[in-house]
Every structure is written in C-alpha cells, then in structure tokens.
Specification:
This protein is mostly beta strands. The chain has a single domain, classed as Jelly Rolls, CATH 2.60.120. 4% of the residues lie in helices and 45% in strands. It binds manganese (II) ion. Manganese (II) ion binds next to strand 10.
Length: 129
C-alpha cells in the first residue's frame, strides 16, 4: 500500500507548449510508462489542451467543474462532475474547461505518451457546440 495525502501531490504547471490557458498536472500513478498513467488535470476557465490522440485511448473522469470534449469532426460534448468520456485509440480530440468554470478531470491512459498535433484549438473551434 502506498498512501499519498492530498497535500503531498505535486501539482505542476503544464506550460503552454501543448495547452492554451492555465493548466496544472498532478501525477497520481507511480510508474506511468509502460503501465497505467493516472493524471489529475486542473484547467482554469477557458483553458484547454491542443489537438491530440492517445495510442491506447483515454478515459476521462470528470471530478469537478464543467468542460467540453470535442472531436475533429466537430462533435462536442459538455461534461460535468461524475461524467466519463472515453476516446478510442487514435481519435483526434481536445478537452478543457468552459469559459466560466474550472474543470478537474482524471485522465487514465496506457500505451505511452500523448501524440500532440501541431495545432492549437482555435477560439472558433473552442466556442463551437
Ligand atoms: Mn485526450
């Protein structure tokens, strides 16, 4: 057993290379590669990922707040606490907070790192849906 008290979780700035706005990561799993990578992700209002895919797909569990998940065909889902979104392997998408709410989600992935596309999510795409 390995208990990490909440205050001992290291929340680090995700930076702006692959994100728009303020995003923080909390690493929850101990050995992310090649096993399970469990990550807490906190988005400030308006913050979102860039377009990306996951080699083995991704489970998002919405822990608090409100946000959006969008595919590159324009399909957009609005999410809030308790929702789960599964993105299959290789599906291009982004996720983030709404303009007026924080979003905290748990990200569960296996199979290695996120594959980032070169494109940021435009304000036009962000506002869609
Ligand atoms: Mn994702």
């Amino acid at each position: 057993m390995d208990h990490t008290p909440a205050e001992a979780i290291d929340w680090t700035d995700a930076g702006d290379e692959h994100f728009t706005g303020k995003v923080r990561f909390g690493q929850l799993s101990k050995a992310p590669d090649p096993g399970l990578n469990a990550l807490g992700v906190l988005f400030e209002p308006g913050a979102r990922t860039d377009w990306h895919t996951h080699p083995d797909g991704q489970v998002l569990y919405i822990a608090s707040g409100a946000g959006k998940v969008q595919k590159d065909d324009g399909e957009t889902v609005h999410v809030s606490a308790g929702d789960v979104v599964y993105s299959p392997a290789g599906e291009t998408h982004w996720h983030g907070a709404t303009e007026h709410s924080y979003l905290m989600h748990l990200s569960l992935t296996t199979g290695g790192p996120t594959q980032w596309l070169p494109d940021k999510v435009s304000d036009e795409d962000y506002r869609r849906g």
